[in-house]
Automatic annotation (TrEMBL):
PPR repeats lie at residues 93-127, 168-202, 203-233, 236-270, 271-305, 306-340. It comes from Salvia splendens. Belongs to the PPR family. P subfamily. This is Leucine-rich PPR motif-containing protein, mitochondrial. It comes from the Eukaryota. NCBIfam families: PPR (TIGR00756).
Length: 445
């Protein structure tokens, strides 16, 4: 009796779902009372009903699955089989599952799309070319988070080649760029070879990605060789800036200046990103005079400094203890409408904490400056790591600014940042020095 009741209930549910699909009452299908009862068996029977009554199975599957595709049970092999078991036509089944791959990929559910794709391969169904392209683009856009994703891209490319379909230049460039950014240089070159064999010529975007890949590994000789071999495209700002930045990082200023000369001779003039690379290298070497000459050149050419420019100079001045100049550039940022970020404050705070100069009465007190920066951090909602708080607390404790140090410690706790051994030891030692053993013990407990 129980089985008969269940069978009648399921039969009624199947008819209900069929009616919903035909009339398009999808909101009813998604209601818990009906939607929660839809199983692989129900899906199978619904598709069988449509097939028996002359409806296209692929049409039925698309309309039915579109509304419930996000439900986890659809990804099980049992359910995937149920979607195609009602029809013996392999072309129809390939269409249904290919559509499901596209649906998941377009919904940014790449892992689910891959599962359906794998099921098709296991069952011998040939994915549609469009499904391969959509899935390939989806995997590339989501960043190839693991080796398996990279292997899946390779499989997709082979699948497309077997169907005489070649991805477009945008897809190839996106894939090459992603491989290059992840340090997968061999894979990037393999894609370049594949695209050229497919009759797709590399453009400057392709070359820029490959040049960047060499530069990030300090393989400047190979980067320069590739640069000289560029054909069918003209180097642009990105090309030259990437090379200039690479040579800056390896310390070849002579080559940097040569490339800048070539860049300008070709009618391209350095922008703020190019200048930032030059400034970073000069500041790293402590050549502040030359750095300021570059800054003046930017002004002469009406190139406005950005946050990176200012942060580079602020950090450099902080490292040599010239806090006046560091503050000058912080103020310049504010005047230009640029917002100081975590890096700005971190550099300034560490600069003040490391400064050993004894300020005169007319100059701002370091401790006051540190607390003022802390207030700015809090008001701006900027989060910094524990190293900044540690530096502030150690500095204040050494100068017996216990009250200020505890204020910093309080701000740290407000942000739920746990103190470490250095912080607690610094506060405890500061209290011991002024004879407050009770407070000192509290920090050591």
């Amino acid at each position: 009796m129980e089985y008969l009741h269940f069978a009648r209930s399921e039969s009624l549910l199947v008819k209900t779902v069929c009616a919903i699909v035909v009339k398009g009452y999808w909101d009813k299908l998604l209601k818990p009372k009906i939607g929660s009862s839809v199983t692989s068996s129900v899906i199978n029977q619904v598709l069988s009903e449509f097939s028996a009554n002359g409806f296209s199975v692929s049409w039925a599957a698309q309309n039915l699955v579109e509304k419930i595709a996000r439900r986890d049970f659809l990804l099980s092999p049992t359910v995937l089989n149920a979607l195609v078991n009602s029809c013996s036509d392999s072309d129809v089944n390939a269409h249904v599952l290919s559509w499901l791959v596209i649906f998941y990929a377009d919904s940014k559910m790449s892992s689910e799309a891959v599962q359906v794709f794998e099921h098709m391969r296991v069952c011998g169904y040939k994915p549609h070319v469009h499904a391969c392209i959509v899935l390939l683009n989806s995997l590339v856009k989501e960043g190839l988070t693991n080796l398996r994703d990279a292997e899946k891209v390779e499989e997709l490319l082979i699948e497309m080649e077997s169907n005489n379909v070649v991805p477009d230049i945008f897809t190839y460039n996106t894939l090459i760029s992603l491989y290059c950014k992840k340090g997968m240089h061999y894979e990037a070159l393999c894609v370049q070879d594949r695209m050229e064999r497919g009759g797709v010529c590399p453009d400057i975007v392709t070359y820029n990605s490959l040049v960047y890949s060499y530069c990030r590994e300090d393989r400047m000789r190979e980067a320069l060789r590739l640069f000289k071999e560029i054909k069918g495209a003209a180097p642009n700002h990105v090309t030259y800036t990437t090379l200039i930045d690479g040579y800056c990082r390896v310390g070849d200023i002579g080559k940097v200046l040569q490339l800048r000369g070539e860049m300008e001779a070709s009618g391209l003039f350095p922008g703020v990103v190019t200048y930032n690379a030059l400034l970073r290298k000069l500041c790293e070497e402590g050549r502040m005079g030359d750095a300021n000459k570059i800054l003046n050149e930017m002004g002469d050419r009406k190139i406005e400094p950005d946050v990176v420019t200012c942060n580079t100079l602020i950090n450099a001045y902080c490292k040599i203890g010239d806090m006046r100049s560091a503050l000058k550039f912080r103020n310049r940022m504010l005047e230009a409408g640029l917002r100081p970020d975590q890096f700005t404050y971190k550099a300034l705070i560490h600069g003040y904490c490391k400064s050993k100069e004894i300020n005169s009465a007319k100059e701002i007190n370091d401790d006051e400056a540190i607390l003022a920066l802390l207030d700015e951090l809090v008001q701006g909602g900027i989060c910094v790591d524990i190293s900044v708080y540690r530096a502030m607390i150690r500095r204040l404790c050494k100068k017996e600014g216990i009250g200020c140090a505890e204020r910093v410690f309080g701000a740290m706790q407000t942000r739920e940042i746990l103190g470490d051994t250095v912080i607690y030891s610094s506060l405890a030692y500061a209290h011991f020095r002024v004879g407050d053993a009770v407070s000192a013990s509290a920090f050591l407990d």
